[in-house]
Amino acid sequence: ALVNFTGNDPSGWHTYGGYEGPWIENVWIQHFREDLWTHYRQDPAVKLRSLFGPYVPLFIPWLDLMMRSDWKYPPGFVAILKKHLRPDVPYITVSQN
Question: Number of C-alpha atoms within 13 angstroms, CB side, residue 81?
């Protein structure tokens, strides 16, 4: 459900003060989701908790989403997030905002 909001494509990175990224959120997503998890998930013995302990990672480029939507989250984003996040699950994410 959140897949439409979790892209980390460099063309979607925002620009500020002449810097075009990658930003801390993008680096975290690149390192943990695209590099480490892509490598480790090929081994069925390795579980997500091997990398994140009890936490479920949220690989969301929070600030890029807001910058592309005039400083608001895109329509439907918060509703989808609230629908799928559970209060009994510990999550981990990185947000620079």
Answer: 13
